[in-house]
Amino acid sequence: MTTTPEAVRRASPRSRRKATPPDPATPLLPSAAPVRLLDPTGTPLPAPADYPEPPVAALVELHRRMVVGRRFDSQATALTKQGRLAVYPSSRGQEACQVGAVLALRDTDWVFPTYRESMALVSRGIDPVEVLTLLRGDWHCGYDPAARRTAPQCTPLATQCVHAAGLAYGEAYQGRDTVALAFVGDGATSEGDFHEGVNFAAVFKAPVVYFVQNNKYAISVPLSRQTAAPSLAYKGVGYGVPSEQVDGNDPVAVLAVLTRAVAHARAGKGPFLVEAHTYRMEPHTNADDATRYRDGAEVDAWRDRDPLARLETYLRARGALDDAGVAALADEAEAYAADLRTRMNTQPTVDPMSLFEHVYAEPTPQLVEQREQVRAELAAAQDEEGER
């Protein structure tokens, strides 16, 4: 009996399997597990080919800014207790994300922060008193956004996602290789502006990096009540945006992943979404009672993953840091905090008439009437003071 090729094909189980077409989402998908280059003890792990370890000099500078940033954060927290700040959202525990994002950028790039990015802003070189001006209760952000290429800190969730997309698109349209990095909290990924910003950036290939700091809680709402996605990094796939997830308490990995994301955007390939798995050690703000929605054991577990201790251990092992260097950094950080404390203890000069500025381009009759009432009251008080 002669076996024909057609009979062989019919008989072969392999021939009955249809070829699986390539998954169009594969180039967009994040790693199955967060990228990690250091384990929680600071021991180096094999670096993936896509994420080579940053130069040691960059890691030394990353460590220095993290030390100063943490001391700034604790001083700002203390200032709220002294009544010098109206509110302060701490970023303790998120130092690797705050500083790593800044170091991945050029000075000519733009940052779009949320209210929690005070540490990132001082790490970028902005005067800490100017950074805290808004949180002190002033009507403006304290620094010049255009000069610092840093948008005002944003309290409404996710609105900075749209702003970042628009600026990045405008810069690219004018032929500049500017990258915009938008800090995003996990709660903000549930907002419509996040969708609109990422979608616009993807369609128009705007050079934006959306950096999601997933610190597990949107104030008191846990991540499990916000999304059913395997991780927030997977949200990029729906927009056609390549994404990655990283251990946000591993400073080396954060800098490596963000460096690649920024390079991707700068090369004209469009936006990139990065999710950092991290943890907010302090309450949402000084007005929050975090014990109402999380227990001490959870906080203690994350304390053992301290990003600053992790990087210090690694740099000591590499011979890039020693006891003298650690002591010098502590002195630098303390001097920074002392200068901030001294300048924040000086009561700002406030002009009550400034209440009426920048309300309307053309003041309404009611506003003019109110302004003149205040002016008259101030004049009367001044006359009364002069008569004493």
> Radius of gyration, rounded?
26 Å
What percent of the residues sit in helical stretches (DSSP H or I)? 40-55%
Helix count from the secondary structure assignment:
14
| Lateral strand order in the biggest sheet | 1-2-3-7-6
Biggest pleated-sheet summary? 5 strands, parallel
The portion of residues forming beta strands comes to: 5-15%
Regions with little confidence, pLDDT below 50 for 5+ residues: 11-16
Number of strands: 7
Query: Structural class, judged by helices and strands?
Result: alpha/beta
Element-by-element helix/strand order = HHHHEHHHHEHEEEEHEHHHH
* Form type: globular
Report on the architecture of this protein.
This protein is α/β, with parallel strands linked by helices. Helix content is 44%, strand content 8%. The chain is built from 14 helices and seven strands. It has helices at 5-11, 13-16, 56-81, 95-103, 118-123, 128-136, 145-148, 159-173, 192-203, 251-266, 296-303, 307-317, 323-344, 365-387, and strands at 110-112, 180-185, 208-214, 217-218, 221-222, 243-247, 272-277. The protein has a five-stranded parallel β-sheet with strand order 1-2-3-7-6, sandwiched between helices. The chain has a two-stranded antiparallel ribbon with strand order 4-5. Strand 4 (217-218) and strand 5 form a beta hairpin. Helix 3 (56-81) packs across helix 4, helix 3 packs parallel to helix 13 (323-344) and helix 8 runs parallel beside helix 9. It is globular, with a radius of gyration of 26 Å. 40% of the residues are buried.
